Amino acid sequence: MLMLIITGISFFENLFRNNEQVMFYHSYAYQDGEEWVIPMRLYVYEYRPSIQRLVTSLIRRSWDLSDEEAARVNMRIQDFVVDSESRETVLFSFENDPQNEIFVLTDEYGEVLRTDLNGVVKGEIRLSEDRMEEITAVQNPENGWLKVRAVSPDHTGEGYIKPVSPYGTSVISDVDDTVKITEIPAGAGIVVRNTFFKEFSPSTGMAEMYHNFGDDVFFHYVSGSPWQLFRTLSGFLFGDDVDFPKGTFHMKSVTKNFLSLNTWRDLSDLVLNEDVTLDQKVRQITEIFEHFPHRDFILIGDSGEADPEVFNLIQHTFPDQVKEIYIRDVVNARELTPERLQGMQVIPAPTIERGVSQFDH
To answer: Are 250 and 223 in contact (CB under 8 A)?
Structure first.
């Protein structure tokens, strides 16, 4: 019955389509010989406000939410219930480019790429050193982030790209329970509440620590959370109130049916599947290291998941590039399993217990 209702709503919404939205996830540019390479991930979608309201109502009744919690759910599920647009070619340009050059994502063989069945397209563009200098000079961004915007017919969206020097220091940071309190060791029910229903809370002292690394340090946030939370998490972390240094996000790809209530009752696969998250993080961090073979890296995570194990693997693979490893200890591993943290800098934190949330106190 639910799917019949949703199908009917979708039919009528499709009669009044707006421009398709393009989400440009924050990206970086790295140097490859005399070129700058920009790996990019784009998502093309259309809003479905009626379905969003319907799903919010169903979740509210299922979880017995307050008005305030329901309002948060409605905002945070937005990117889970949008309509993904496949077979789309996205054209885009750099803002104020004096040459008005139009770009499109291509694969390693130069073939133009379109969005897949999930509305996602991943590829790269390349710029000469002269073109990068020209675009940077005309935009002259105060924080170094260059702006791009979609220019293809019926597409709307903009994003940011940061050219990163081949030399220097970068920080690779986990998100949940490292910079944001999610309480993953407490279990799936508490994780769902903290992710979708409750006001987000930053980890004490971490933003200050990150800023103390200096203005020349670049940040990559590698998270086991799904890409559908990118907008919510980046808005929280980079907002004026929390103020973590802006950086790129590297997240988990999921294709679950978020119109099914069973999905909302059991979100453990998205956040709590440690094997999937470990493989994802190792793969994404390895790619970053390969793009910047001359940069030093500081790795920061927490003990509630497999961050110590991930970072050990990365350090074994890139021993000359890992400068320091910091672990925010949220499960008292420093006493219970100290071997996990051997050779790492420990950041003490309140211990998270199974089935207990600090926000209930």
So the answer is: yes
